[in-house]
Amino acid sequence: MKRGKHVRKEAIALRYDEKKDSAPRVVAKGKGKVAETILEKAEKHGVPVKEDSALTELLGELDFNQTIPEDLYQAVAEVFAFIYNMDREFEKRKD
């Protein structure tokens, strides 16, 4: 019997404050149990989660508190647009 390949969970948390930051920055990252904790905290605080393994791999190369490089702006902008749309949908459902 073949076993499926086990994929270790990885999570990256970004923060962007347009008044303080020049670009989004990595505020948490980890694999395995640390990733699970990041995802649990996101859920607890109502922070939308976007799964994108390719982007996670690229962002995983960055150091904690490092701003994202310019070549990732477009990909990260898509994530922030996703979160914005999720927030809008949530607000509509509350009314």
Written description of the protein model:
The chain is an alpha+beta fold. The protein has a single domain (10-93), classed as name from scop (3-Layer(aba) Sandwich). Helix content is 43%, strand content 14%. The protein has helices spanning 33-44, 53-59, 73-94, and strands at 10-15, 25-31. It has a two-stranded antiparallel ribbon. It starts with 9 loop residues before the first strand and ends with a helix. The model has no long low-confidence stretch (mean pLDDT 86). Pfam families: Bac_export_2 (PF01312). InterPro entries: T3SS_substrate_exporter, T3SS_substrate_exporter_C. Keywords: Cell projection, Cilium, Flagellum.
Secondary-structure map with pairings?
Blueprint: E1 10-15, E2 25-31, H1 33-44, H2 53-59, H3 73-94
Antiparallel strand pairs: 1-2
Protein name: Flagellar biosynthesis protein
Pfam families: Bac_export_2 (PF01312)
Keywords: Cell projection, Cilium, Flagellum
Write a concise keyword list for the protein shown above:
two-stranded antiparallel sheet; 3 helices; 95 residues; 43% helix; alpha+beta; name from scop
